[in-house]
Amino acid sequence: MVPEMFKSPSQVFSSQQQAAIDAQLAAERTAEEEFREDLEALINSHSRENGSNSPDWLLAEYLVGCLEVFDKAVRNRDQQYGIEGIPTNPRISTDEEE
Q1: Which of 68, 62, 61, 65 shows the shortest CA–CA distance to 93?
Q2: What are the tens digits of pLDDT across the range 10-68?
Q3: What is the DSSP letter of 8?
Q4: 43 burial level (CB within 10 Å; 0-12, 13-18, 19+)
Q5: Alpha helix segments (H runs only) across 1-98
Q6: Is 94 within 8 Å of 72 (Cβ atoms)?
Q7: Among candidate residues 63, 12, 70, the one with its CA nearest the CA of residue 38
Q8: 0.85 cut: is pTM over it?
Q9: C-alpha span between 89 and 12 (Å, rounded)
Q10: Please, are residues 68 and 92 in contact by the beta-carbon 8 Å criterion?
Q11: Is 13 in contact with 21 (CB distance < 8 Å)?
């Protein structure tokens, strides 16, 4: 008898159960993940990774990081000058919130 941990998903779950699990995983895919994947595909479709000989995913991660830092800088600037009411990305915190 094969222990559960060594069985493939098709040996452990029925096809209905596996379909429900797959649907749940797809629903949990975040907008952030979708953006990264889209950016990675865009980089690849234009062969922009060739200049640095870097993997598409690495460049996508770098660019997402740049956007996050820029968002944070804008929020810090707005806070410094008392600017309120401008929509910003709520998941990016200011330095004082950290």
Answers
A1: 68
A2: 566 788 888 888 887 777 677 788 899 999 999 999 999 999 999 999 999 999 999 99
A3: -
A4: buried
A5: 9-12, 15-27, 31-45, 56-80
A6: yes
A7: 63
A8: no
A9: 41
A10: yes
A11: yes
